[in-house]
Amino acid sequence: MTEQGDRDTGLNVIDLNADLGEGFGRWTLTDDEALLDVVTSANVACGFHAGDPSIMRRVCALAAERGVRIGAQVSYRDLAGFGRRTIDMAPDELADEVTYQIGALDVFARAAGSRVSYVKPHGALYNRVVTDEDQAAAVIEGIRRADPSLPVLGLPGSALHRAAVAAGSPTVQEAFADRAYTAAGTLVSRREPGAVRHDEDEVVARSVRMAVEHVVVAATGEPVPVAARSLCVHGDTPSAALLARRIRAALTEAGVSVEPFA
């Protein structure tokens, strides 16, 4: 199955997504309301790395009101580590936990008059399924149990997308506005200095270049091809909503239509 990014990137149409609902109880992290006024897709934490039932319900309701697509951001069961610690799990157990998270979020999405429209792994799981074929296949199995038609948002060329294509599931290619890239087109580990870009002017400029020219400059200086249908702005970065507004305005000024993929 052809990736949606392959079909659409030449049209200068891009989706803007952000991670939302990343709080727990009285603790809050993301400015959900402000970001939902800007993005077209919301990757909602499903309770395993962040989020709880009340937060999930509230974010789904706000997203539905604004016509923002709701995505299940599935992760390892790691609240203490914010889902950024790798966990070795049996594939069938991982698949079950992916299905569980999607189902939990979908109940709240449907109660709000919407539905889960896609799935995106979070943190360590996202990075793991770039190369780990077994865990990638388990994630896809978990998604297909919930709904075989759900698109999978992830890094182009990843094991996750290969597993999805093999299973007949739709895929959507993603790029990152504020993450450093390697020359191979993967993300620089957060353990490395400079893995997250904080200069807002730079982030805005590289976002436009990825959407218009389909290229990003790697941390080592090489131009890297980027074919993406969706662009991620991390919701947990300082002033994330203001940065997202700047990116969206710059994309529009450059002739890029900001539209959801799902």
Compact overview of the structure:
The protein has about 260 residues and is α/β, with parallel strands linked by helices. Helix content is about 40%, strand content about 20%. The protein has one domain: TIM Barrel.
Distance between the termini: 16 Å
Kindly name the structural category.
Answer: alpha/beta
| Strand and helix order | HEHEHEHEHHEHEHEEEHE
Q: Do you know the CATH topology? A: TIM Barrel
Helix content: 25-40%
Summed up, the domain count is: 1
Question: What can you see in these coordinates?
Answer:
InterPro entries: Glyco_hydro/deAcase_b/a-brl, LamB/YcsF/PxpA-like. This is 5-oxoprolinase subunit A. This protein has 262 residues and is an alpha/beta fold. It has one domain: TIM Barrel, CATH 3.20.20.370. Helix content is 40%, strand content 18%. The chain is built from nine helices and ten strands. The chain has helices at residues 4-8, 32-36, 53-66, 91-111, 123-131, 133-146, 159-167, 200-212, 240-253, and strands spanning 13-20, 41-45, 69-74, 116-121, 152-154, 171-176, 215-217, 223-225, 230-233, 257-258. The strands form two sheets. Strands 1, 2, 3, 4, 5, 6, 9 and 10 form an eight-stranded parallel β-sheet that branches. Strands 7-8 form a two-stranded antiparallel sheet. Helix 3 (53-66) crosses helix 4 (91-111), helix 4 packs parallel to helix 6 (133-146) and helix 6 crosses helix 7 (159-167). The protein is globular, with a radius of gyration of 17 Å. Mean pLDDT is 93; it is low at 1-10.
